[in-house]
Amino acid sequence: MAFPSRYPPDLVDAVVQRVADARIVKAYGAVTTVARQLDLDPRIVQKWVTKATAPQAQQADRGADGTGPGHDYLVPGLLRCKFCHQAVALAETAAAAPAYLCGNDCWPRPLDAVVIADHVGRAILRHAPRIVPFPAGTPARPHLAAMHAHRILTCVTVGASAHDMTLTWRAVPVASPDRWETERAKRVAAARDLAARDPLRARQLLHRSLTGIDPATAAPHAMHAEAGTLLAALHLRLGELDAAIRWAGYAHHSANHLYGPTHRRSLHALHLFAAAHRSAGHHQRAYHLYRQLGEHFASSDGPRGDRTLSVHATTALVLHDLGHCQAAQDLLADTIATQRRERPGNPTTARMTRHLARIRQDCATKSHHHEDGER
What we know:
Elements: H1 9-25, H2 30-38, H3 42-52, H4 55-65, E1 79-81, E2 89-91, E3 99-101, E4 111-112, H5 113-127, H6 142-146, H7 149-152, E5 153-158, E6 165-169, H8 179-194, H9 199-209, H10 222-237, H11 241-259, H12 264-279, H13 283-301, H14 306-321, H15 325-342, H16 347-365
Parallel strand pairs: 1-5
Antiparallel strand pairs: 2-3, 3-4, 5-6
Helix pairs in contact: 1-2, 1-3, 2-3, 8-9, 8-10, 9-10, 10-11, 10-12, 11-12, 12-13, 13-14, 14-15, 14-16, 15-16
InterPro entries: TPR-like_helical_dom_sf
Protein name: Tetratricopeptide repeat protein
């Protein structure tokens, strides 16, 4: 059969969409069926479909979908090898198209990522099309559906070929974040990048991302906790201590609930919370928070760990602020001795020694008399 050298783009798009629709109902033979119905050569229909599902086309789809460019058709970690059960990732191959490769060499050759995504996407469109947020008038493309696979699938296992695939479905789909939450996340990410060089702009972005969130009453939320931690650090840096205390308190409470008290995010928020109270002159509250932080570090790093000793030194300074001069001197002297023994030459030792000399000089200036006779 002879066919024209050029077909109208509208006709090509219509044929590709018709093949996609046919594949939702019938997994195989869709190209031949559509070509026969429209009196077209199956070879050219296959060429159009292949071009429409090529990696470059998928990148354009991703840009239109608001997810950005890239080749990760499935969320990393979702695809696993059927034989070793390990997660597989995209591999660098000589082929033009991206491919998956088992790290344990269970497969004789890489598997085309476009084909994998196509199989997964068609299964989603067949069994759970409502989870895919297609804008009105947008064709239901399998590769766009595959980008939402993690919301409806817990795992995709594949053998030596793309046809040897098993999908494990979730009992309840994971909700897709709404547009407002997506905008919040973007602002938090931008503020994180700006915090060092433009703190005022970063603070503005974080305030916008936390619009409507009251730190005194808000429920624990991962993204809000991260934003609150960043905002507390910026407020502390800018000397806005009341706001720093509010947001550090929320971030600490939220991180404790979400991750547990010993998680790094919880400990970072606790440190901010203690520092904000100390800067505001709330020395009693700061003392208890630093004691709590020191106990966590002693449990995780050991009593002579670097972070443990650093917090002990700060706790000694807070004790001095509270007027407990002898207790402050004893704790700081013990901390310095341990630091010298465990980490000779550590530059923080000199700073601790200067603080100890200042505390002793303050006691002498104020003519303090301690029980052991030291001044």
